[in-house]
User: Fold this.
Amino acid sequence: MNSIPLTHILFVSTALFCIGMYGLFTRRNMITMLMSIELMLNSVNINFVAFNKYLWPEKLDGIFFTLFIITIAAAEAAIAIAIIINLYRSHNSIDVEDATELKY
Amino acid sequence: MVTEFFILLKQELVITAIVFLLLFLKLGKDRSNESVLTIVNVLLFVNLAAGFFGNQEGTIFNDMFRTNSLIVFEKNILNLAFWLISLQSYAWLRTHKHVIEFYLLLLTSLLGMFFMISSGNLLMFYLGLEMSTIPLAAAANFDLAKRQSSEAAMKLIISSAFSSGLLLFGISLVYGVSGTLLFNEIPAHLSADPLHILAFILFFSGIAFKISAVPFHLWTADVYEGAPVAVTSFLSVVSKGAVLFVLVPILYRAFQPLAGTWYNILFVLALATIIIGNLFAIRQNNLKRFLAFSSIAQVGFILVGVSAGSPAGMASVVFFILVYVFSNLAAFGVISLVSALAGKENVTDYKGFYTTNPFLSWILTIALFSLAGVPPAAGFFGKFFLLIAGAARGNYWLISIAALNMVVSFYYYLRVVKAIFMDSNEQPISRITVPVLPKLSLYICLVGIILTGLASFVYDYIYSLSYGL
Assistant:
């Protein structure tokens, strides 16, 4: 049953994390940036579930943590999208390059 | 058993009760802003006073939530700071449409911080951290019509979401190597293994974002400038203080086996934070940006104290944050009054401020002297204890560079004082009549700055509760 080794799963989750980080740094559309952050959080979820199943199967700490991360990611997205909508009303754009009121 | 549960959770329950009361107040008949503000301020004072009585030590929820005298004291500091901010924002909120929502957001955030400070488990810590930052992002957008405000909120939510991503990846690796999330069980599984160090660095980067230590400070100035002044003072005092309060026990207890590693990281971060915070503070003209960079520099000094790893280090951090609450809130109190009633926020606008507003000028000056660290004010003793605690590790380079930077900081603090007292101005800010509640808060800050500097029992009390590595 346990034919896929843990390292493969960790490789996938780390790759997802890096893709998310790369997307956050290179994309200029706020919705896409938000999606990149969700990608990072999901890679953490994979980590938790994999560690729980392979290394510490006697307790369910990791699974519970995953449930909370999903919930909080939803709350975060709700607030972030509300802020982006408000920003769109004042700037008429959701490109971060156009939000240039605050600079030193 | 049941009564113990209620006593241990007392401070959180009081805040939850206030949140529900405010919700019902919102649903009920329309009230004038003045009456709502009076009710809220009385409730917050009750909340502050209730924190001093009938406290117990103990843990509940299977060690997830713990409390002791030091944690209760830290929560009282945060309660006090929030009450002062609420008094100071009176002039701004009096004419605002959404008074109750403002308090709902900030009280929820405060509740999250309380759970974070009390956490004995990484899950509880993460929940508290998110509960404290998500409402803050909404609060930063509170001036809905202002472009700057929404931009600040966007920067805050994106950077805090990114930082919690880093933090979570760190936590997941800690879970992977130790199989537990409890702070007191983690140390048994940690060693100076590269994977453990990577986990710690990711975890610490997430925290460094929240306290705006230097490589992760870029959001701070923009958010502070764009957000309403009340939210800015909450961010710079309460939110930063809460994360620092929880950082110390996490480093000293949960990551104790990595003490050598985190000392080196703190060493670099503290130096970079102090130097860059100071250098950027010199060139600022907007007072909110100026205080943002000055608060970055202050965090650098706090990190010097944290790096000590001794009871003295912990005590000096808590004491400095108490002093910082008084001095920073005195400065923000004056700035928020001037911003709400005269609409000016630049250093150049403050030229000749003394000729029209001597009372506010003196408060701002004493606050800046305390932030800079001039001896009679409490800020001097705060920084002195931090540096002395840091010096106990024998790393004199760190301490001497930090001390030299205190001299640099005099330049930019005194530049504001010079503008207030010495520079002449054709049209100084006209005379401001200070409402009663903000005046009360300014007096409390003034007494706090002087009292914590002169009375040694405050530091002694904190020291008696602290512990080291």
In short: The mean pLDDT of chain A is 89.
